Amino acid sequence: MVISVMPFRNELYKFCPQCGGRLEKKIVHPKEPPRLVCGDCGFVFYLDPKLAGIAIIPWEGGLVLARRGIEPGYGLWVAPGGFVDVGERVEDAIVREVQEEVWLNVRITRLLNVYSYTGRTTVIVAYVAEVISGQPGGGDETLEARVFQPAEIPWEKIAFTSTRDALRDYLALR
Q1: Which domains does the chain have, with CATH numbers?
Q2: Is this structure's pTM higher than 0.90?
Q3: I need a labelling partner for 169 at 20 to 30 A (CA). Which of 13, 30, 41, 145 fits?
C-alpha cells in the first residue's frame, strides 16, 4: 500500500520527532502558512516536498517509456525515473533509476524542465538522456519498456502529469 502525505494534511503528524512533545499549528513567520511546532521544545516541523527525477530518452527515432508494474499507475506508461535518495545527485539518481527500470545505461545531456503542482508532494526534475548501452527491458518495478514514435505515444495511458508535460515540452523543442 502506498500512502501519500499531502503538505496540507498536517493532522497526520501529531508528535515531535525530536522530543515526542505534542505538535501544534502556529504562525512562525508572518505571511507564511501555519507550521507544526512542538509545544515542549519549540522544534518547527517543516513538511517539505520529495524530489524525483525522470529521463526523456530519445532512441531509434522515438522515446523510451516504461509501463509501470507498481502502484500508483500500475499498467500505465511513464518516463523512467524515481525518487532521489538523501545525499545523491539528481543526475546520478536518474541514471540509477533508468538502469533499474528499463535496463539502459544513459548519460544525462541536458536539463529539460522542473515540474511542481499545487497540492502535490513531489517536485520532478526532467532531464534529456542519451543511451550509452543496453536494450530496453522491464525491471523490478516495470512490466515492459518500449520505444514509441512521437505519433504513437499513448497519451491517454500516461500515468503522471509530469511525464505528459515533459514529453510535450521535449517534442515542442524538436
Answers
A1: 10-45 (2.20.70.10), 50-173 (3.90.79.10)
A2: no
A3: 145
